[in-house]
């Protein structure tokens, strides 16, 4: 029955130029981003040149170049933005078809998040420079005041690390992660170079007592990344046309890549929101958040202390946190907690029920799926 339901729902994904014969093929094309071609993980010559000279550019010039590059973003990059709903609709359609085929009016399911909450909220930060590192305490104070905690990802070999800051953050309930080795766009230039840097990254993971990683600039190669000694990664996203390697996994939920759990960011980055698009409110984030809540997804946002130093961007972030706090209905967790929950949820017996592992009901009413 599952296979029949899959085949009926496949067209929703819209990959008409690809032959989808089974669910494994669909996973490779969506979560694995194979639909973008075999060279998807490789940077163009122009981008290689840009990263060669980027270390010598002031941030003001970098921001101007980001804006200029945004004008070149194609509307037909393959996905919609900021909301890409096809992968989500595919899953609900599979359930609907399964119920029709099996002549069931309702099915029991394990809730996506602890205590049956509507969505997960995960806050992350990448610290690109020493200036950003100096602003971390301001960001942490803001979050702590509102009852939130987050992860701060440090670049080990780009600026003098403030180990006392890391110690203080951990003591206050924040998480420490690793953000590449250098913030220079060269991590994936060659496999040999990547493996050399990966050895050093693994060393810093141990030194920081960290279990999570995010690649600088969202460069990524899922096959190469298997050598990283991590529980989870944060380098992928559901949809984003503004990244150097654009595209996306289409997923608003965590998923597995080889040996680690992927936590894709599902809300636009602060630099995209405040610098590239010139937004002055959190409206874009909150609109996407409503979609995520409706579909029991994970709202994972990535901001940067380097950009949050801008009062306008910090105000957007603060307003977002206040709006989320008022909304409620969320499970707020650190990245490592989210990854461990997702793995645990996948392996729990179906008869297991507790405060964390609650069950709900999917009902078919008037040919529509309803969650009760």
Structure, described:
By secondary structure, the chain is of the alpha/beta class. The chain has a domain at 116-346: Glycoside hydrolase/deacetylase (TIM Barrel). The protein has 14 helices and 12 strands. The strands form 3 sheets. Strands 2, 3, 4, 9 and 10 form a 5-stranded parallel β-sheet that branches. Helix 1 (2-9) packs across helix 5 and helix 10 (270-276) crosses helix 13. The radius of gyration is 21 Å and the shape is globular.
CATH superfamily of the domain at 116-346: Glycoside hydrolase/deacetylase
N-to-C order of helices and strands: HHHHHEEHHEHEHEEEEHHEHHEHEE
Q: What is the CATH class of the domain at 116-346?
A: Alpha Beta
Query: Quick check: average pLDDT?
Result: 92
Q: Roughly how much helix do the residues carry, as a percent range?
A: 25-40%
> Can you tell me the residue ranges where pLDDT is under 50 for at least 5 consecutive residues?
none
> Distance between termini?
23 Å
CATH topology of the domain at 116-346: TIM Barrel
**What is the strand tally?**
12
Second-tier CATH architecture of the domain at 116-346:
Alpha-Beta Barrel
Secondary-structure-based class equals alpha/beta
Biggest beta sheet attributes:
5 strands, parallel
What is the 3D shape?
globular
Number of helices: 14
Strand content: 5-15%
What is the radius of gyration computed over CA atoms, rounded to a whole number of angstroms? Answer: 21 Å
């Amino acid at each position: 029955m599952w296979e029949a339901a899959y085949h009926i729902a496949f067209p929703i994904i819209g990959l008409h130029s690809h032959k989808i014969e089974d669910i494994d093929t669909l996973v490779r094309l969506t979560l694995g981003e194979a639909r973008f071609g075999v060279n998807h993980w490789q940077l163009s010559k122009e981008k290689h040149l840009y990263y060669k000279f980027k270390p010598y550019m002031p941030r003001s010039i970098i921001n101007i170049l980001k804006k200029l590059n945004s004008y070149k973003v194609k509307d037909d990059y393959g996905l919609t933005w900021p909301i890409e709903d096809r992968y989500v609709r595919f899953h609900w359609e599979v359930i609907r078809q399964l119920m029709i085929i099996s002549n069931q009016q309702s099915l029991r399911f394990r809730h996506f998040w602890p205590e049956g909450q509507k969505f997960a909220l995960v806050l992350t930060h990448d610290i690109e420079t020493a200036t950003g590192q100096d602003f971390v305490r301001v960001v942490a104070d803001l979050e702590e005041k509102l009852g939130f905690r987050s992860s701060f990802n440090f670049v080990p070999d780009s600026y003098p690390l403030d180990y006392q800051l890391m110690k203080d953050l951990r003591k206050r309930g924040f998480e420490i992660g690793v953000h590449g080795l250098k913030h220079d766009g060269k991590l994936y230039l060659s496999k040999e170079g990547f493996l050399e840097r990966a050895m050093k990254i693994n060393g810093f993971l141990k030194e920081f007592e960290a279990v999570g990683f995010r690649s600088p600039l969202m460069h990524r190669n899922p096959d190469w990344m298997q050598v990283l000694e991590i529980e989870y990664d944060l380098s992928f996203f559901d949809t984003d046309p503004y990244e150097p390697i654009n595209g996306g996994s289409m997923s608003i939920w965590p998923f597995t890549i080889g040996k680690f759990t992927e936590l894709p960011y599902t809300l636009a980055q602060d630099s995209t929101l405040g610098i590239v698009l010139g937004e002055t409110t959190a409206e874009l984030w909150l609109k996407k958040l409503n979609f995520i809540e409706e579909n029991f997804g994970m709202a994972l946002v990535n901001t940067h202390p380097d950009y949050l130093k801008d009062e306008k961007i910090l105000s957007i972030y603060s307003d977002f946190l206040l709006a989320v706090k008022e909304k409620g209905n969320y499970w707020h967790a650190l990245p490592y907690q989210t990854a461990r929950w997702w793995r645990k949820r996948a392996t729990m017996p179906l008869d297991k029920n507790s405060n964390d592992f609650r069950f709900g009901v999917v009902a078919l009413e008037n040919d529509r799926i309803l969650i009760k």
